[in-house]
Design goal:
Keywords: Amino-acid biosynthesis, Histidine biosynthesis, Metal-binding, NAD, Oxidoreductase, Zinc. The protein is of the alpha/beta class. Helices cover 44% and strands 16% of the residues. It folds into three domains: 149 residues, Nitrogenase molybdenum iron protein domain (Rossmann fold, 3-Layer(aba) Sandwich), CATH 3.40.50.1980; 194 residues, Rossmann fold; 32 residues, no CATH class. The chain contains 16 helices and 15 strands. It has a six-stranded parallel beta sheet with strand order 1-12-11-10-13-14, sandwiched between helices. A hairpin with a 2-residue loop joins β3 and β4. Bound molecules: nicotinamide-adenine-dinucleotide (NAD), L-histidinol and zinc ion (ZN). The site of zinc ion has 4 residues, from loops.
């Protein structure tokens, strides 16, 4: 049952506390993660083997699986499952391949030509979650844009299963992506291994992928310790559903539960334009929850979530913009008039027949998205995340005549004589 707040009577402080999530007020997660990073830096592979034993309850013989092992595992899945993964792969590929666009060169002054060229990030590390559920779909969401961008080295880490293997679905996705090795390492230790390198695991330039609070904290921490960057903070899943009187309460409840089942720390927020809708969704939640295999996790997430009563869709969107959800669902027939008011959201799902699960798996958009309010400033993963854009310029003799004195004056007013000389010497 979702606890209800009335938007009209909420004070700023109350809104601030409602929209806060996954904070680490006592620094407990930071301390654990700092310890893990330190251990991986000093003892490398041995730390990874020890943590696999401690957290994943596996005694690893090898830290990775190679092409033969991946081939064998990929063959264990059914043809219809292979086909579903292939369709997801193709749709993600179709959507992401439009993202690599060439920009035109610009002549800012006669003879002064500037342009940008796209270059792939050479070495990328992909983290595929595997704690409470193994997510082969995440491998497609990260691997497809990495391949389109042309990244040379793709390092993949995922926690080992209890038999020291990965599942056949992950193996099949590796084959679709033509990746022939996977490291059996999870959690903060996987992030540390890819950030610093170990005897077995290569150091990368950028680390991608979602994960629990340990993974997310490790990603934010390694940025201050290395020159390795990250895609974004992509932590426990969250959804905010806006529903008006046209919404089907059963659909709304199903969408809330779909994200709630990721884990107890997921959030599923309902913003509705009447108390009747909230009541009907609560009834639907009570009907649907008991039938779910992951009802315990989903139930805990629903307990940690809430509903907000808004006067109308504009007010509902005002709350949503403050919350900045990873996923925003507009369960209203009137969505077209309102999309322009959406300012902060990772990925948006419009109308009654667009379940968020479609974006999680197969419609084509990426499911690696900013959480915890970071949708205010970060985009989800795309091909852009895997490339840099390098600027170039060329100045001709005519160009130097046009721009030369401007640069000389600006260098002089900053008191940088050598900068001025670099122009003057070419003019004389
Ligand atoms: N934002 C996104 O784009 C997005 C996408 C997919 C999934 N997700 C989220 O990713 C998360 C995946 O989490 P998960 O736990 O299932 O898998 P995970 O792979 O992120 O974490 C599992 C690992 O966590 C480590 N760990 C577990 N308990 C620990 C402890 N007490 N101390 C230190 N390390 C510990 C272990 O090494 C374990 O291998 C979920 O919260 C899901 O909602 C987010
Ligand atoms: N909803 C998750 C992102 O928060 C992605 C996912 C993978 N599998 C199922 N769902
Ligand atoms: Zn999901």
């Amino acid at each position: 049952m979702l606890k209800t707040y009335n938007y009209a009577t909420l004070k700023k402080q109350e809104i601030d506390s409602l929209i806060a999530r996954n904070t680490d007020p006592s620094n407990a997660i930071q301390e654990i993660v700092d310890g893990i990073i330190q251990e991986v830096r000093t003892t490398g592979d041995q730390a990874l083997i020890d943590y696999a034993q401690k957290f994943d309850k596996v005694a690893l013989n090898s830290l990775y699986l190679d092409a033969d092992a991946i081939d064998a595992l990929a063959q264990t899945i059914h043809r219809d499952q292979q086909r579903a993964l292939e369709i997801a792969f193709q749709n993600i590929h179709k959507f992401h391949s439009t993202q690599l666009r060439r920009e035109r060169a610009v002549e800012t002054m006669p003879g002064v030509k500037c342009w940008r060229e796209v270059r792939p990030i050479e070495k990328v590390g992909l983290y595929i979650p595997g704690g409470s559920a193994v997510l082969p779909s995440t491998l497609l969401m990260l691997g497809v844009p990495a391949r389109i961008a042309g990244c040379k080295e793709i390092v993949v880490c995922s926690p080992p299963q209890s038999n020291g293997q990965i599942n056949g679905f992950v193996a099949y996705c590796l084959k679709l992506l033509k990746i022939d090795r996977i490291y059996l390492v999870g959690g903060a230790q996987a992030v540390a291994a890819m950030a610093f390198g170990t005897e077995s695991i290569p150091k990368v330039d950028k680390i991608f992928g979602p994960g629990n609070q340990f993974v997310t904290k490790a990603k934010s921490t390694i940025q201050s310790l290395t020159n390795v960057s990250i895609d974004m903070p992509a932590g426990p899943s969250e959804v905010l559903v806006i529903a008006d009187e046209t919404a089907n309460p059963a659909y709304v409840a199903a969408d809330l539960l779909a994200q709630a089942e990721h884990g107890a720390d997921s959030q599923a927020v309902l913003v509705a334009t009447s108390q009747e809708i909230i009541d009907a969704v609560n009834v639907a939640l009570a009907e649907q929850l008991p039938a779910l295999p992951r009802r315990e996790l989903a139930g805990k997430a629903i307990e940690n979530s809430y509903a907000v009563l808004a006067a109308d869709l504009r007010e509902a969107l005002a709350f949503s913009n403050s919350y900045a959800p990873e996923h925003l669902i507009l369960e209203t027939s009137d969505w077209e008039r309102h999309t322009r008011y959406i300012l902060n959201a990772g990925s948006v799902f419009l109308g009654h027949l667009t379940p968020e699960s479609a974006g999680d798996y197969a419609s084509g958009t990426n499911h690696t998205l900013p959480t915890s309010g970071y949708a205010r400033s970060y985009s989800g993963v795309s091909v852009d995340s895997f490339v840099k854009k390098v600027t170039f310029q060329h100045i001709s003799e005519v160009g130097l005549q046009h721009i030369g004195s401007t640069v000389e004056i600006l260098a002089e007013l900053e008191g940088l004589q050598a900068h001025k000389n670099a122009v003057s010497i070419r003019k004389s």
